[in-house]
Amino acid sequence: MKLLSIDTSGQIFSIAIHINDAIEVAEYPAGKINSEKILPEIKIMMSRLSIGFSDLEGVAFGAGPGSFTGVRVASGIAYGIAYSLNIPIEGVNTLEALATLEDNKHCISCIDARMSQLYIGAYEVNKGGLITLSEPGLYDPDALPDINIKAATIIGSGVSMYKNQLSEKYSHINLTVVEKEYSLAEAIAKLALPRMKKGFDLMDAHPIYIRNKVAQTILERNS
């Protein structure tokens, strides 16, 4: 399957093209390339691989959580391509993508949400896919979710920011701490492939805005 994957949700923008069993990846530090150059970079990669947009059979994107603007950029580009070609589109949770990057059965994905908060999700990673151990959510660093596992990798942009709070909360877990930034387009492509449906479906093109969902819930409770 020829699949294009795009992620602009974090500090490293990335694009990937999956062709059968091979995958081509390009990474760009967010400060070195702006959103307007993502589509031209996709065209350059496709030219290098001797394919055109009409050859694509699916599009995947980092659906968040992450940078609000970045998620909108990736979803907008992915939507435009998939809609115009009537091909499947799949938004992949960036916390899930992070969980697949390290070789550990259990992973706690942690993304800096700004405003002194962080996004967290916990997963079991196996050959059959991901099992959610703790639903993705938005948390204050002093009110982190309970996660009951013996060992895990903890990864993502929120780790270095809230390392002390995370280490204290999860002191019962044998943690492997990974603080570096990762690009996610390749991981997103691999997760999206088995999830692809036939034809374009708008329901698969929605970004994930956890903060908006939390705010809406609070408003509903107070109404």
Short description, anyone?
30% of the residues lie in helices and 32% in strands. It is of the alpha/beta class.
Approximately what portion of the residues adopt beta-strand conformation? 25-35%
Unreliable residue stretches: 214-223
Q: State the strand order across the main sheet.
A: 3-2-1-4-5
Euclidean distance between termini CA atoms: 48 Å
How many structural units, i.e. domains?
2
Q: Number of helix segments?
A: 7
Overall structural class, as computed from helix and strand content, comes to: alpha/beta
Can you tell me the CATH architecture of the largest domain? 2-Layer Sandwich
CATH superfamily of the largest domain: ATPase, nucleotide binding domain
The geometry reads as globular
Main beta sheet strand tally, sense and closure: 5 strands, mixed
The CATH class of the largest domain is identified as Alpha Beta
- Please estimate the helix content: 25-40%
Radius of gyration, taken over Cα atoms and rounded to an integer in Å: 18 Å
**Average residue pLDDT:** 91
Taken in chain order, the helices and strands follow as EEEHEHEHEEEEHHEHH
**Count of beta strands:** 10
Annotated CATH topology of the largest domain: Nucleotidyltransferase, domain 5
Q: What oligomeric state do the depicted chains represent?
A: single chain
